[in-house]
Each structure stands twice: as structure tokens, then as C-alpha cells.
Amino acid sequence: MQPLLFGLFLSMSLVTFTGNLLIILTIIKDNHLHTPMYFFLSNLSFADICFTSTTVPKMLMNIQMQNRVITYEHCITQMYFFLLFTGLDHFFLTVMAYDRFVAICHPLHYTVIMNPRFCGLLLLASWLLSVLNALLHVLMVLRLSFCTELEISHFFCELNQVLQIACSDTFLNTLVIYLAAGFLGVVPFSGVIFSYSKIVSSILKIASAGGKYKAFSTCGSHLSVVSLFYGTGLGVYLTSAASQDSRSIAITSVMYTVATPMLNPFIYTLRNKDIKQALGKLCS
Q1: pLDDT at 88
Q2: For residue 245, what pLDDT is reported?
Q3: Which listed residue, of 79, 104, 170, 209, carries a Cα 20 to 30 Å from 55's Cα?
Q4: What is the pLDDT at residue 238?
Q5: Per-residue confidence at 246, pLDDT binned at 50, 70, 90?
Q6: Which ranges of the chain would DSSP assign to H, the alpha helix?
Q7: Max Cα separation, the chain?
Q8: How far apart are CA 72 and CA 255, in angstroms?
Q9: 95: which residues sit within 8 A by CB, 6+ positions away?
């Protein structure tokens, strides 16, 4: 199975990198896509490339070299960047939901509200909160003591798995995880739910079926990505909480860390007419 797994994950990582890079280049090259929605989409694609790059290269090396050793420093570094880009994905999806809410519910004020300065502030806030969140968790892990010759039942240094093998008390770490998840997980997700509840309410008020379809088509791609991201993330959480089987946890984590970033470019390319047209111009 090792050569098959190596080829599978290598192909998935190459598709992820190529697909997201094409979206970034398409948005940069086409002036018609220089809007807030596509500005945040290009940042989401960049975050997805980095998100996959924190786990997949090491996993491929483990499979190819038959050596699953990782140093303490590399483990901490991998954990930090994984938390950083996970947080960025959360915030970018929330900001994009807010962008669709303003575009559909307040179309006349869209250019005033989503001005370049405000978009820059949203981008800066997303990066700042993600960096601080990842740094907080890593600093909390650095205070723990670990025994030698430890085994992590995962394909990367995931925070909960690392805490399970600590020799010292992890109560404060667990408390910080719940508090951070409440603020940086529940709050952005609630923002997405609120935005789409208002969007659906506004769309239902449109009289014509063509108008409803046009309004919904502008946010259909984003809604699909949000469902995929939070659906797989929730699957990882529920699997970890309900089962201690490392194999099932690893399989659901693969869906979250590898499959989701790979599918995002396909969703936006296939469901978004502007991206398809701009991509066609770029390729030709």
C-alpha cells in the first residue's frame, strides 16, 4: 500500500498547489476580478497552499523514506503553522460570507462599505488573530515536559495528539483550547450563519425566479466551500471525541487537511462563471 499511498497523496498535493495557484494568477491578471470577493478568494487560495504544505511533504517523506521520526523543534514548528493557516481559513471564509451579505442585502452601499481600506483592515485582522492564536497554543505546549521515545498516533503533530503524550499536567492547555475554540471557532462560524440567514431572507423576497437564481449564484461557490470546510472539520472533532482509534482519526483528518484544499479550486472554477472566463483567457 505504501507506493499507492505515496502516489495518491503526491497527486493530491500537486493538484492542490496547481489549482490554487491558478486561481491566484487568474485573479491577479484579470482586472475584472479586482473586487473584494476575489481579493479574499486569492488569499484563501494562498492559505490553502500553505495549509497543505505544513503536513503533506512530511507525510510523503515518511512514506518514501520509511522513517517516521520528527524532532521536537520540527514538531512544534509544524503545529504552529498548521494552527496559523487553519485560523486563516476560518477568518477568510467568515469575511467572504460578510462580503456576500453586503453585496446581496445592501447592494447600493457595497462599494462604500467594502472599500480597499476596510478590506485591508479585515485581512490584517485575520492574520493578526491567527498568528496570536497559534503562538498562544505553541507557548502553552512549550511549558509542558515530555518523556523520550514518544509516539504520536497521527501523520502530523496535531495539538490534541501532542497534549495526550505530555508527562506534565495539561489542564491549562485544555482550558485555553476551549476558550480559543469558543472565540476563534464559534464566533466566525456564527458570523457565517448570520450572514447566510440574512442572504436567504433577502433572496426569498425577490419576486422573479431569475433574480433569485442570479442572487444565489453569486454566493453558491462560497457556500459549498464553507459546507465542505466546516463539515470535514466537524467530522474530525466528532471522530476524535467519540473514538480513540488512531486510524479513523487519521482518515478523517486527511479529508480535512488534504481533500478540502484540493476541492476548493474545483468548486470555484466549476460554479463561478467569472473565474471560468478569466481562467480561459489566462490559459489561452
Answers
A1: 94
A2: 65
A3: 170
A4: 64
A5: low
A6: 2-29, 36-53, 56-65, 72-105, 110-113, 116-142, 159-164, 171-181, 187-204, 209-242, 246-254, 260-271, 273-283
A7: 67
A8: 26
A9: 40, 122, 123, 126
Confidence of residue 42 (pLDDT cuts 50, 70, 90): very high
| Most confident stretch, 76-80, 169-173, 209-213 | 76-80
**Whole-angstrom distance, CA of residue 136 vs CA of residue 76:** 12
Average pLDDT value over all residues in the chain:
86
Residue 97 near residue 192, CB atoms below 8 Å: yes
Distance CA 136, CA 187 (A): 18
* Mean pLDDT of the 117-146 span: 95
DSSP state of 232: H
User: C-alpha cell of 211?
Assistant: 433574480
Residue 166: strand pairing partners: 146
User: Which DSSP letter does residue 250 get?
Assistant: H
Query: CA dihedral defined by 119, 218, 274, 111, rounded to 10 degrees?
Result: -40
User: From the CB of residue 4, how many other CB atoms can be counted at a distance below 10 Å?
Assistant: 9
Beta-carbon-side half-sphere exposure of residue 131 (alpha carbons within 13 Å):
6
**Alpha-carbon gap, residue 60 to 10, rounded angstroms:** 7
Question: Which pTM does this prediction carry?
Answer: 0.90
161: burial class by Cβ within 10 Å (0-12, 13-18, 19+)?
buried
Dihedral pair phi/psi, residue 214, rounded to 5°: -65, -40
The distance from CA 223 to its chain's CA centroid, rounded to whole angstroms, is 14
Is residue 154 pLDDT above 90, yes or no? no
Cα of first residue to Cα of last residue in the chain, in angstroms, is: 39
